[in-house]
TrEMBL record:
Bilayer topology term: Peripheral membrane protein
Main location: membrane
Protein name: Peptide/nickel transport system ATP-binding protein
PROSITE patterns to which the protein is assigned, alphabetical: ABC_TRANSPORTER_1 (PS00211), ABC_TRANSPORTER_2 (PS50893)
CDD domains in alphabetical order: ABC_NikE_OppD_transporters (cd03257)
Length: 337
């Protein structure tokens, strides 16, 4: 990981993307996202980690205006490059998406159309947002394909998605996301399905493009090794809320929320051999069975009666926040009733 050029705590004033008090509800069921704040600055990588079902994808889809499900209600304030985003009306984000902000997914076929040649799809992504000729669009497609390490790009342009390997499809999807030089890239588990060699290449590629262009990246992953490798800051999500956030060093070396401590295993370390999330006994409660107060209380080994009240995300050190009544832990445990 390269040091972030500005300040790793990302003061809101310089944030490219700011999200305040995001709340998402599907139909008549309970809220699945309940008051999430996020900020990411140019050149910075924010990792979002958490078990399956924590709300990582729903959060990022809402920010991209891609959560178009019927009956979905999105509340909260968001700003992108000083401009207010109306998350409640995903259509209002159509002009930004694929242009100044782009997203890549675990499964590239989510973004690739199986019926069209690769070159036509990337060129079309250019022509959707830029007033250029067909020839210029194809030249840009070819250029980005080379930059993301696609060999024989002229030949690849004529191929269909099913003719490519998984790793190559992933590169094509990244090329398509980056062809218009977005200021923000949201990557939702983009390497989870790939073998480790390809995964490492893709991570290097994203980091390199980020350095070259000062792009802000929100990187969603299960893999703590990946967080240590690519991220400056990390937000740990649990059941639709942020449990803990801070710099990678703060959260890995000095975790303060019992959930984070559980995920990191008993001996948190930035350099240890552990790369996967450790298993925390139990599972994320469904929105319908969410406990009152601290949502982690059904699994927390330290739960107390007070935990029936919702803990605030409190600042413990500059930029390091945790939502636990008893943080900082080493000072409180043992004395708590
Ligand atoms: N279209 C939907 N309708 C109803 N509930 C949904 C929908 N999409 C996601 N959810 C719920 O939102 C929660 C968060 O899901 P998700 O963001 O996919 O988690 P993650 O990406 O962290 O694994 C889950 O409880 C999931 O069941
Ligand atoms: S508030 Fe209580 S239940 Fe929640 S993480 Fe802290 S100790 Fe555990
Ligand atoms: Mg997901």
């Amino acid at each position: 990981m390269t040091p972030h050029p500005t300040n790793v705590t990302g003061t809101p004033a310089e944030a490219l993307l700011k999200v305040r008090d995001l709340r998402i509800t599907f139909g008549n069921s309970a809220e699945v996202i309940s008051g999430v704040d996020l900020a990411v600055t140019p050149g910075e990588t924010l990792a979002i980690v958490g078990e399956s079902g924590s709300g990582k994808s729903v959060t990022s889809l809402a920010v991209m205006g891609l959560l178009g499900a019927k009956g979905v209600r999105i509340e909260g304030a968001a700003e992108f490059d000083g401009q207010r985003l109306n998350l409640a009306h995903p259509d209002s984000l159509t002009g930004l998406r694929g242009d100044r902000m782009a997203m890549i997914f675990q499964e590239p076929m989510t973004s690739l159309n199986p019926a069209f040649r690769i070159g036509d799809q990337i060129a079309e992504a250019v022509r959707c947002h830029r007033d250029v000729t067909e020839a210029e669009a194809r030249a840009r497609a070819l250029d980005i394909m080379r930059k993301v390490g696609i060999s024989a790009p002229e030949r690849r342009m004529r191929q269909y998605p099913h003719e490519l390997s998984g790793g190559m499809r992933q590169r094509v999807m990244i090329a398509m996301a980056l062809v218009n030089e977005p200021a923000l890239l949201i990557a939702d588990e983009p390497t989870t399905a790939l073998d480790v060699t390809i995964q490492a290449q893709i991570l290097d590629l994203i980091s390199q493009l980020q350095r070259d262009r000062g792009m802000a990246v929100v990187f969603i992953t299960h893999d703590l090794g990946v967080v240590a490798q690519v991220a400056h800051r990390v937000a740990v999500m649990y059941a639709g809320r942020i449990a803990e956030t801070g710099t990678v060093e703060q959260v890995f070396n000095d975790p303060q929320h019992p959930y984070t401590i559980g995920l990191l295993g008993s001996i948190p370390s930035l350099t240890g051999p552990r790369t996967r999330l450790a298993t925390v006994p139990g599972s994320v409660p469904s929105p319908a069975e969410m406990p009152k107060g601290c949502r982690f209380s059904t699994r927390c080994p330290f739960a107390q009666p007070k935990c029936a009240e919702q803990p605030r995300l409190r600042e413990l050190a500059a930029g390091h926040r945790a939502a636990c009544h008893y943080a900082p832990l080493e000072l409180s445990f043992g004395t708590a009733a």
